[in-house]
UniProtKB/TrEMBL annotation, chain A:
The keyword Transcription does not apply. It comes from the Bacteria. Pfam families: Fer4_8, LUD_dom, LutB_C. Keywords: 4Fe-4S, Electron transport, Iron, Iron-sulfur, Metal-binding, Repeat, Transport. The keyword Iron applies. It comes from Azospirillum oleiclasticum. This is Iron-sulfur cluster-binding protein. Residues 307-328 form the 4Fe-4S ferredoxin-type domain.
Automatic annotation (TrEMBL), chain B:
Residues 9-90, 137-221 form the Cysteine-rich domain. Coiled coil: none annotated. This is (Fe-S)-binding protein. It holds the Pfam family CCG.
Length: 478, 247
């Protein structure tokens, strides 16, 4: 199923049209994103502190990436010493197979999962269900999305596209004996009732990783609902999945990264739960899992790493602030991207993982307004990388998967013609003079002009150029 | 940023102004001249190269940008009545020519690029005398002016110098209007939704006019205002200031 999809081109334009037509959805996103933006702004009200913090955060991530291979080896070594079993997966298929083999060995039919975007990237739920294993999302937002048989629309707030009424209807419909209520506390209670029973029964808990510390072999996991702690401590086996970029060098690197993450993501100085997992249950301890596994996923990240400019993509700490501040994401919502990572970071990460043939349009779904660059807590030059990917999409190279797949002879000719007209003063004088005089005669039905004039009047050429006016007014040329 | 008051500046008019808003371009020149500055407008100029650069055609962008580089040989400031084109020249020309024989020249020119309002306020310390009727306006900040050129307060400071002009700021001043160059035609529906939100914000201020420093945004916003038969008019800040101060 996943393989067949890998060869289709994703039609972002079509999906975004559907999203734009849904006024309820647009309202939900607008309200939610406004709220998240103001919460974040409160956390970084002091601009000097903000600049100092993000400089520190960026330097922690840059240092980690500068010695990534070495740190990953160190992480494996220290995790292993602590009793955490480390597995390497170069593809999502390998990662799924590893997870499945662990589950089959302990013969589990029921798994609980905390929030993990890498597991979304793996399509883990669908894969396990195909193998007869029930996997239950335990993060409230993810649980809602799972009940709705949908996918997350935001990496931090997966059900942000829904409002309370919609969730109330969903619960009434899907949870046995559930009453209809729009009271958030009672809705949460309903979910808790279902989840508690599953936590106790599950043999395996799956989680993501927010940061893995190389020097100590520690997995850090932040969350607000306690479900992450339940998933990683109650079932006898805990499997953590992470992208290979999530490693940091030292324990002291964790506070700046976590602090930037939670402030940027939800406007919290710290989450309700911060889990630091360094080993399975030791002899004499009364709780904790018997086994802890760490699955480290590559899935194209090594390729991203190999290019000095594109490597910055891997700095990301997955706070989702770029989504909250993106004027495009705010309009169309997360589902229109049809990708595990939507919004600005998705537009640079997903095309590199899945290739520019399938995802070549994603880097174009952006006005290059730089709102994401302005707030990224680790200073990823998102728009710069977007520009680079636009170039890679139309020029064959070895840097990015399927580079050159979007090359079009017509488009290339148009730009060559444009360059010729603009690089020679004489050619420009003739072309601009003609355009200024005759441009208004262009019919609105012309292909690109038609798209423009759907909601706008035609741009009006002025009849004469600034060059001509400057000459007439005697403005010096040199 | 500050620098000595120069006697001469280069003026880079930008292709959008050249074709669609030459009056605004001329107004910018006259505002500078009004401050006793000699303005040189190299007739060989065309475009900064941004359209091709943002579309992934870097060789073509470089070819066009290189032709512009050759025009600014003297050590004079280069004043640009657009935050977006100024951002391309200041921030992206050095990237575009990195590792080429033109790198040093590109960096030198980039270091002398100013957005018009930034130059009027921070270098010339211009004083404006309003001769117009009372008017409520709002200001549309372009993304590249704000985030690439760091121009946020300067244009509003200029508008606030006008005694009879009441400036009401947008609720979402920092939000993109949805132009984005080829984005507007590549993703027309999203662009339309964005400009729709921008227009709602503009109308909520009760302003009679929306003033901006970037002609890409203006084409988008005024085009949508006109198509929706909205009475608010749009104008480039240079032309607005020129008209207000010349009675």
């Amino acid at each position: 199923m996943v393989d067949a999809a890998a060869h289709t081109t994703i039609d972002f334009a079509k999906a975004s049209r559907t999203a734009l037509a849904d006024q309820q959805l647009r309202g939900n996103f607008r309200r939610a994103m406004d709220g998240l933006m103001s919460k974040r702004a409160v956390q970084f009200a002091d601009s000097r502190e903000w600049h100092a913090m993000r400089a520190l955060g960026a330097s922690v991530r840059l240092r980690a990436l500068s010695k990534l291979p070495e740190l990953l080896e160190k992480l494996e070594e220290n995790c292993t010493r602590n009793g955490i079993r480390v597995h390497w997966a170069s593809t999502t298929a390998e990662a799924n197979a590893i997870v499945l083999s662990i589950m089959q060995r302990v013969d589990t039919r029921l798994v609980v999962k905390g929030k993990s975007m890498v597991s979304e990237e793996m399509h883990l739920n669908a894969f396990l269900e195909e193998h007869g294993i029930e996997i239950l999302e335990s993060d409230l937002g993810e649980y809602i999305v799972q009940l709705d048989e949908a996918t997350p629309s935001h990496i931090i707030m997966p059900a942000i596209h829904m409002n309370t009424k919609q969730i109330a209807h969903l619960f009434r419909q899907k949870i046995k004996d559930a009453e209809y209520t729009e009271d958030v506390a009672r809705l949460t209670d309903l979910a808790r009732r279902v989840l508690r029973a599953k936590f106790a029964a599950a043999e395996v808990g799956v989680s993501g990783v927010n940061a893995a510390v190389a020097e100590t072999g520690t997995l850090c996991l932040v969350e607000n609902e306690g479900n992450g702690r339940m998933c990683t401590t109650v079932p006898p086996v805990h499997i953590a999945v992470m992208g290979l970029e999530k490693v940091v060098e030292r324990l002291e690197d964790v506070p700046p990264v976590i602090s930037l993450l939670t402030r940027s993501a939800t406007g919290q100085p710290i989450t309700t739960y911060v889990n630091m997992i360094t080993s399975p249950r030791k002899d004499g301890e009364r709780d904790g899992p018997r086994e802890v596994h760490l699955v480290i996923l590559d899935n194209g990240r090594s390729n991203v790493y190999a290019d000095a400019e594109l490597r910055d993509t891997l700095r990301c700490i997955r706070c989702g602030a770029c989504m909250n501040h993106c004027p495009v994401y705010t309009k169309v919502g997360g589902h229109a991207y049809e990708a595990p990572y939507p919004g600005p970071i998705g537009k640079i990460l997903v095309p590199q993982i899945e290739g520019l043939d399938r995802r070549g349009e994603m880097p174009h779904a952006c006005t290059m307004c730089n709102a994401c660059v302005e707030i990224c807590p680790v200073k990823i030059p998102i728009v710069g990388i977007m520009g680079r990917l636009r170039a890679e999409a139309v020029h064959p190279s070895s840097a990015v998967k399927d580079a050159g797949a979007r090359a079009s002879r017509t488009e290339a000719l148009v730009w060559k013609g444009w360059a010729a007209a603009n690089a020679s003063p004489l050619a420009y004088r003739i072309a601009s003079g003609l355009a200024a005089r005759l441009g208004n005669m262009a019919p609105s039905s012309l292909p690109l002009l038609k798209d423009w004039t759907n909601v706008r009047t035609k741009p009006r050429f002025a009849g004469r150029t600034l060059h001509e006016m400057a000459r007439e007014k005697g403005i010096a040329d040199v | 940023m500050s620098q000595e008051r120069p006697s001469t500046v280069y003026y880079f008019g930008t292709c959008l102004i050249d074709l669609f808003y030459p009056e605004a371009g001329m107004a910018g020149i006259e505002l500078l001249q009004g401050q006793g500055v000699r303005v040189v407008f190299p007739q060989g100029q065309s475009c900064c190269g941004q359209p091709a650069y943002n579309s992934g055609y870097r060789d073509e962008a470089r070819k066009v940008a290189r032709a512009q580089l050759a025009l600014f040989t003297e050590d004079w400031p280069v004043v640009v009545p657009s935050g977006s084109c100024a951002g391309m020249m200041k921030k992206h020309w050095p990237e575009l020519f990195h590792g080429t024989p033109d790198q040093a020249r590109a960096e030198a020119v980039a270091g002398r690029v100013w957005e018009l309002t930034q130059f009027l306020v921070n270098v010339l310390d211009i004083r404006l005398e309003d001769k117009g009727e009372p008017l409520r306006i709002t200001w549309h900040a372009s993304c590249h002016a704000q985030r690439e050129m760091g121009v946020v307060d300067e244009p509003k400071a200029l508008l606030r110098q006008l005694r009879n002009v009441e400036l009401v700021e947008l609720a979402r001043e920092k939000e993109c209007c949805g132009f984005g160059g080829t984005f507007a035609v590549r993703h027309p529906e999203i662009s339309a939704a964005m400009v729709g939100d921008k227009i709602a914000d503009i109308e909520n201020t009760g302003a009679k006019a929306v003033v901006s420093g970037d002609c890409g945004c203006l084409l988008n916003i005024t085009g949508a205002l006109e198509a929706g038969k909205r009475p608010v008019r749009g104008q480039h800040i240079a032309q607005f200031l020129k008209e207000r101060t010349h009675g």
